[in-house]
Amino acid sequence: MKRIALLLSSALLIWAGCNLLNVDQESTPSPRGNGRIVFGESIENVKIGDDTTAVINKLGRPDHVGTGDFPGSIFEYVYPLVDSKGYRDSLEVTIIITKEVRWEQSKGVQGLKVSGSYSGETRNGVGLGVSRESALVLLGEPDRSSKDDDDQIVYDNYYFEENAFSLKYIEGKLQVIWMVPHQN
Q1: Of 151, 150, 148, 139, which is closest to residue 177 (Cα–Cα)?
Q2: Which residue ranges make up each domain of the chain?
Q3: Domain formed by 33-181, architecture
Q4: Grouped pLDDT means (10 residues each) for the chain, 184 residues
Q5: Which helix (H) or strand (E) holds 10?
């Protein structure tokens, strides 16, 4: 009888320990941002120049593959429900799959775009939905900024050695983030 009680106690402890280790850390946002966007480096660990295999190894198979007026593909990832409101994340990865003169910089990932309810943020909390004022405090002044005629849409561009980030604000709220190669 003691042996059965000992086995049941051990099994219960192992089960409880496994459940504690299995806590979904994404569901508990950190106060400083989740770091899925790293300005000057990557979005979701995907970098400019990554090839198709690297993207699939990092993100899995895309939910949708499309084409455009360029020699490549657009991989679209629609992430599973990740927050209590039921919002879905979306990430588009533009991949150039052939090397042509107009794409001579490199083949591979040539652009990433996050929009919709994508919940990735920089470590300091810049993500979709943040106000432009807050982003400017956290990121500093952009290298280039432009507005539409009625100031409802603003684009702020930040240039880094390997890539550039373009932020699109509509009515003062960040709606789209692009990462593209930096054209010197």
Answers
A1: 139
A2: 33-181
A3: 3-Layer(aba) Sandwich (3.40)
A4: 42 36 33 77 89 88 81 75 52 63 62 84 92 95 92 93 92 92 77
A5: helix 2-21
